[in-house]
Amino acid sequence: MVETRQPGPRPLLVMLVLLAVGIADAQKSLEFYDLLPEDPKLYDKMRPPKKDGQATVVYFHVTVMGLDSIDENSMTYAADIFFAQTWKDNRLRLPENMTSEYRLLEVDWLKNMWRPDSFFKNAKSVTFQTMTIPNHYLWLYKDKTILYMVKLTLKLSCAMNFLIYPHDTQECKLQMESLSHTTDEMIFQWDPDVPLVVDENIELPQLQLVKNYTADCTQVYSTGNFTCLEVIFVLKRRLGYYLFHTYVPTCLIVIMSWVSFWIKPEAAPARVTLGVTSLLTLSTQHAKSQASLPPVSYLKAVDAFMSVCTVFVFMALMEYCLVNIVLVIGESREVMPPKNPPPPPPPAPAPCTTGPDSAKLDRIYDIANKENTMLLSCRSQKSSNAAPPPPPPPPPPPPSGPSKTQRAKVRALNIDRVSRFLFPMLFACLNVTYWILFWKYI
Ligand SMILES: *[C@@H]1O[C@H](CO)[C@@H](O)[C@H](O)[C@H]1NC(C)=O
Ligand SMILES: *[C@@H]1O[C@H](CO)[C@@H](O)[C@H](O)[C@H]1NC(C)=O
Ligand SMILES: CC(=O)N[C@H]1CO[C@H](CO)[C@@H](O)[C@@H]1O
Question: What are residue 101's phi and psi, to 5 degrees?
């Protein structure tokens, strides 16, 4: 401290020497005009550096740091990328005695130089981050190659098709096209060494990044051909979520609706409630299965599955309807005869004692009927007719009611019994068909 304060010829000399070395050294600050040709008028920043009349080649490199916010409803996704463009401008002058491999330049100088006019073709919004410093840099290599690197957050559109949702695979692109230069003046090419780097740890909630590749998307317009490059991400939907939140619960609801076939046909409230509840639960499931999707006009795979399940539950309900009809018809047939005018009381039933007539009756009717008839006739005889003339045999009584109802019940039970096998069999068949059909997409 004391020495520096000391005025004297020695520090002055040191300073002078340092200054001289500084001027000689390449460390002196660089001005933009040091890079331009001696006559700045020769440099046209609107014209690409066409060496030997060849189109300028701009090499691209993209590092994808993140993919997220895949939104089916708006068909967009977000990507965080490092985007590097490299081109060679032979018109530039190198800073004198450039010893290092490259030199950092001020990014603002780009405004006064020729630079590729690439834009993100399918971007809805591009965010350039400025914290803590603007996220871009510019390098000048010894061979007059310029590298411009920028970090961006892009919101990109991605056309999605949900025909086989949730077994679908979506291809989302990131396209970069030249805005104003045709292929005669400039062409984009992927960096021959490392065109694309995608972070291995990208994790998406519903989709899985199965493939990533680069391609050329040069477009022919009426004004000419415009160079374009694209990165393609192949995203496959994970089935796990849908298996446990849609397919398994739906199958369980359908199976639940079959419980009705084991409940006795007379229990109408139980069976109807079961069917209606299943139907309602299923429609809730169906609505939930496509909450995140845009209302597309075509039938999706999950819709087909859900519709078939709904039909099954509906048919289970209709099966009860059929069973009920069979039962009611049986009962009404039993009830019908009393509604008809009752048969006139037999004018002369056989005497209650055994006689020759009773032997004839034995032959015609079974014992039960005979006793029944005799009982009836005895009563009527006692109540109405005191002295009957000898009667003709009474008309055969209509087929007995109880057997009719029972037959109807047996028929109803048979319908239930058939359904117990038919419904599960059909459902299993349809399930197998569905999963075989979509197995190749899983
Ligand atoms: C991207 O593609 C490259 C080459 O095809 C592959 O090595 C890499 O694992 C892929 N990255 C991801 C995240 O799939
Ligand atoms: C544009 O490209 C097409 C083929 O991709 C080619 O036939 C045509 O000549 C090109 N036009 C120009 C102006 O380069
Ligand atoms: C300090 C230094 O090395 N200067 C050299 C810079 O390059 C020119 C020619 O390119 C030389 O003449 C200088 O001596």
Answer: -65, -40
